[in-house]
Amino acid sequence: MKAYIIEDDPITVEVLKNELIKLEFEIVGVADSIAQVRKDLFKLKIDLCLADIQLADGNIFELLDEFPKIPFAIIFITAYEKFAIKAIKLSAIDYILKPIDYHELQEALENFIQSHTEGQNTDYKPNISMASNYYLERKSIQKILISNNYKYESLPLKEVMYISSSGSYSIFNLSNGSSTMSSKPLQYYEKLLQDEGFIRIHNQHIVNVQFIKGIIRKNNLTMVQLYNNETLPVSRFKKKDFMKYFFY
What we know:
Elements: E1 2-6, H1 10-22, E2 26-31, H2 34-41, E3 48-51, E4 54-55, E5 58-59, H3 60-64, E6 73-78, H4 84-89, E7 94-97, H5 102-117, H6 128-134, E8 143-147, E9 152-156, E10 160-166, E11 169-174, E12 179-182, H7 186-192, E13 198-202, E14 205-208, E15 212-218, E16 221-226, E17 231-234, H8 239-247
Parallel strand pairs: 1-2, 1-3, 3-6, 6-7
Antiparallel strand pairs: 4-5, 8-9, 10-11, 10-14, 11-12, 13-14, 15-16, 16-17
């Protein structure tokens, strides 16, 4: 049985590799970007794909939608509940939330092996319990799980005031004055949180609009004032979209 991993977190990649090897899967590829997946999926023979959904350069659903019929089984492994409905529509055989529950992962893999061994091929049935748990689509993300390559940390989204860029990393600044680092770039969170009340105001900052106290204009500069009286610049390239968000 041939397996392919789509994941940009090194910790998760190692976990998945170990479990697949234990169950005698042949790992035919590992990709950490949509660009790499695009090169591989249309040429490799794959029985099972274990896939994260939101990668730094895009959303895996955009690529999977290009298949008239997906010729392999999929187990989605992600930190976010919001994609579950789409996963169900794609007939994913399971949807596992991070941090990974080893028993849940093992059960999902064993269910696949059983189906594959019985000759069901690509006519895989989705995990019924997964479908029932996520059938009612959530209106918003309640928590966000971030990774800094050493550990996962769960943060209530309502406590995130803004996210700042630090090279290829992101800094989450919280309402209690603390901060924590993620190993993913700001662009990743811009896409993920665009429908969750977060707006990019600068190439360095994404702001939770719930924490905006006011807008300051001075000498052709526009600044956002937060409820803790901290101010952040609005770039001239983002100003039009930012003002439109509030006034149109």
